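Thread: calcium ion complex, take 2
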Amino acid sequence: MKNYYYSIAFAAIMLSTGFFESCKNVKKEEPPAAEEEVIKELAFEQRKIVDSAKFWWAHTPEDVTGDGIADLVFINNNSAGGYLGYFKGQKEEGLWELNIIAEQPTTGGLFAGGDLEASDIDGDGDIDVIGIKHPGEWTDAGATAELFWY
Ligand SMILES: [Ca+2]
Ligand SMILES: [Ca+2]
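Output below.
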């Protein structure tokens, strides 16, 4: 009977000190929450990347160098000729570096076209560029256009 009273007293002490509640609280604890998703505020900045886009017929951004930064592919065409090229994109401020893909189409003539596309045409993982040969809309809008990829 003495042990019974000790047990009752022990239980009363545990109840009054909140021991059982603290055990419950320990069980309720959840693992630390995953890092909260960081929502970036939409913002635009302005940078000059090319000095002159005079005589450009078309341009498209695509990572032709494969460094993860978009480059700017373009067709330059004027009465004296032109070329297919790209400016190498960079994260740093400053003008982008000019690179010429082809001075003219394989069969001669001019690169021209109001549209320019780049994609991995042969599936080797490198971006390829489609160049369009055409004399120009003002010269002969109905002329046949030849397409080449580089
Ligand atoms: Ca690039
Ligand atoms: Ca390719």
